[in-house]
Amino acid sequence: MKIIYAVLTAALLSACHPKTPDDAPKAAYAPSAHQPTVPELTALGRAMFVEPSLSASGRTSCASCHSPDNAFSPNNNLAVQLGGGDGRTEGTRAAPSLRYIQNVPAFTEHYHDDDGDDSVDAGPTGGHNWDGRVQTAHEQALGPLLSPREMGNKDEAAVLAKLKAGPLAPQFRKVFGEDVFERPRAAMQGALMALEVFQESPAEFYPYTSKYDAFLRKQTTLSAQELRGMQLFNDETKGNCASCHIGRISPGGVFPQFTDYGLINIGVPRNRQLAVNADPAYYDLGLCGPDRTDLKDHKEYCGAFKTPSLRNVALRKVFFHNGSFTSLEQVIRFYVTRDTTPQKWYQGGRKFDDQPAGMDANVNREAPFGGKPGDKPTLNEREIADMVAFLKTLTDGYQVKN
Length: 402
Hints:
This protein is mostly helical. It has twelve helices and four strands, in the order αααββαααααααββαα. A hairpin with a 5-residue loop joins strand 1 and strand 2 (89-90). Helix 4 packs across helix 7, helix 10 (224-234) crosses helix 12 and helix 11 (328-337) packs across helix 12 (381-391). The longest helix is centred in the middle third of the chain and has 15 residues, at 184-198. The protein starts with a helix and ends in an 11-residue tail after the last helix.
């Protein structure tokens, strides 16, 4: 992983010296007589990540929604986070963890695994954000800065004005040159590059230090309950989690990310506590809108959201794109009883109540889903507890006993 990080960073840094004027169409990342080093960019990106003065309210930073102390996910139990120009505007989607997204592929409607068999089309896959609309980590770094529901800046000029007038200006000039703010476009690209390089730091964003990683390295063993949970996780007739949350080492030796990067509709219930859902005509349909617009006419994609990594999932306080669930036990119960006890999850007498009628065919029916009302769930309460025990082994920070 350190080799991959070095290669990526070298590719980014190769663009640091522009060969054209700053106002030219192909201006590079940032002008500087001094080529920034990886440690300099990482330190600057880390400082920017926790700096609230870069927001319109002056109270919101990247870390407000992606806490470094909680695997870069929220450290509160809010379904969606607050931001915007006043710092109190409610978001529409739960903030995901930023860990283990270093290998996210670019979005494509037709994804083929790198396994030598191109006959299997995995469908819509890749991209950043819940709907996959952002193609790169560089582009993703800009989104929250300008989002009216996140950091709330009007435009890039507003971001640069705050950076120039704020406490990070001396550090920014040291990294990119004293005249960097005289070249606004390149300065903005430099800011995004610093955030991007920071988020590619292995020790902070993909450390692979969970108990499960130690187990894969044969440095520890799992308990009987954790092993039972792992077996249920992988069993295609029981949990069947590994069909989307891949947990094996790849043929190339890469440790698992616990996601296939796919986008899928699993019929998550409507979260009626969200302000945006006070409008009964509003539906968040993920891949086909409203935040993503290029696929709005692909009704077959409606309701599909990104399959998140399950690494550090036990640290989360809320789950799914709308933060509608509050415990791992509840999540697993939903999976195994969605179709056998639908009245437990849906209101108003209609199943799949967070999408317009007529889209039920979009919802995934594979195990552990399936069955009809009154059928026996695929997992009992003991098995659910076993699954939770296994999922807790995916939390980073495990100390191997000598």
